[in-house]
Amino acid sequence: MTFAELDLRTSRLANVLLDLGCRSGTRVAVVDRGSTQVVEIVLAAAKIGAVAIPINWRLSGAEVAEVLADADARVLFFHSEFEGVVSAVQASEGAKLRVVKIDGSEEFDYEARSAGASSVDPGWRGSLDDVVLQLYTSGTTAKPKGVLTSNRNLEACTRTGGPWGFDESSVSLCAMPLFHIGGLGWALVGLANGAHNVVLPEFTPAGLLEVLEGMSITNTFLVPSVIGMLVDVPGARERNFATLRSIAYGSSPITPWVLKRALETFRKPLFQVYGLTETHGAVTQLDSCDHAVDGEKVGLLRSVGKPYPWVDLKVMSPEGEEVAVGEAGEIYVRSPQTTEGYYRRPEETAAAIDTDGWFHTGDVGRVDSEGYVYITDRMKDMIITGGENVYPIEVESVIADYPGVSQVAVIGVEDPLWGEAVKAVVVAAAGHQLDTDSISGFVRSRLAGYKCPKSIEIVTELPLGATGKILKRELRARYSTV
Fold it and tell me: Domains of the chain by range and CATH?
């Protein structure tokens, strides 16, 4: 699809939305895997001032209905694969929700209605502060919240195309889900920089390698767990990745073992980014020159790099005072990428964003003397064992350095004596056998005793979300004794 065809199709779809009664501020939702239609719906909604809501397609009908009710959505686009989900939604939402099938030939068919609509751009011109997108948080600890995304936020988000090396010759692979800022944000950065975007509907390691090689991909964003899967595919190292310029990754640090295998397999630079849904993607970057598998620079793999020039970042104590260099505290971020708040949740907005515009990330971290940012952990993931605070990422970083470790997750489990005990769940790299006693000794030689895992379990895989992020809540439920 050319840019001209995309413009034409989204103008037609924008006029379909007007015919369905949508106006400025109307919420328009979509449930589909990665597809060009999701991107079209986001752009078409923007052409009339409506607000697009890509929904996690892995949610149940009840969960989708909860999101739609929270957003007060009026139109729902969906792929027939999710017809059962939509039927459950319609049963609860009733006649107020108009549904449009992306594929098929029913009354409200996507292609048929678009083909008969006017191709004239409706001509909406909004302001920088108009809300154009509403992404829902994962809801791991509470009900999902709608993060408000303005034109200003997305304009700033697309600035990262420069540091990422995007231009009109780029062929960008959108491998992450489009209901997530890591997927949709990546696609929008590609569009804003004139790139050719390739959107994957679903992920398999072998299939992703085929696309990377066969479609001459230059840029992509992945998570470390997915990179680890790719390098374990038989024959991956023998493939031709000559067109690839770099791989960005985020959501968690990469282990030296996986980095070494990735550099050997792809023979291209990797760089790490850090951000949240509320910051609309990356706000820091660890450059490829700071990635090393040995030597004095190897410690930088635990860093998420330095803030972009348009991003302010500081580390704060629980008392609201900025801490000294090297000390840990909560990470605060302020930039044009930062959301103005959550939809219809004034109290939670006020708790997350202070009057000076600083977003309180909920991440614990520190900044060293050279300006490198280190994320210590999520505040909610902290383990309290015998009155001592243990940050899982610190323990995970040590275990990740053990030879042959592909993935590791550290959680707190109930303990009758200590309240919580530290537990490590580890996945071995392909072809490696891991010994728990040896790993335990390795950790004890590097960390204080109270931080060391009371138990270590070797598993074949960790539970992953749609973006490839490790789902610690599932691990905590799995090992709960309550």
Answer: 3-126 (3.40.50.980), 156-378 (3.40.50.12780), 382-478 (3.30.300.30)
